[in-house]
């Protein structure tokens, strides 16, 4: 996958903000992932526990496409960095911190949702209506601040239900439009 940048949106679902006892933002919270963080497989880093965060993701191009992505987080490291007021990259931009499904075309952005299954159990489910900052607002804001170019990926934030990734876990991420699956991908966690 050749892209310019991955822009990630933090704290975009109210229930997830409450889940982690975070402060409610008055404007979008952004951070970046380098392309060295993208992997085909889910691989445990081996030096810190890793949490999954399923997200609706968009690939910018002549025609906007949607896909599923995991924003993996080293939660213990992130918590320490946040306490010290330091950037999150060590916890969010490590090797293997992002995996994606294919990106596909869709009809209506308001009709998109996601489901995440861990070992065949539904653990995350949400849709665009639950986002504090909707995708079109994010695209406009990101373009104003960083610029938004063909090949960029925007990860729009995770809903409640995040948790630990363990060796052998099987995950499936799905993107739905009007309740119908339009793209999905399965992974088995490797050590």
Automatic annotation (TrEMBL):
MF terms (GO), sorted A to Z: acetylpyruvate hydrolase activity; metal ion binding
PANTHER family: ACYLPYRUVASE (PTHR11820), ACYLPYRUVASE FAHD1, MITOCHONDRIAL (PTHR11820:SF7)
Transcription regulation is among the record's keywords: no
Coiled coil (UniProt feature): none
UniProt key word Metal-binding: yes
Residue ranges of domain Fumarylacetoacetase-like C-terminal in the record: 5-179
Protein name as it appears in the record: 2-keto-4-pentenoate hydratase/2-oxohepta-3-ene-1,7-dioic acid hydratase in catechol pathway
Alphabetic keyword roster: Hydrolase, Metal-binding
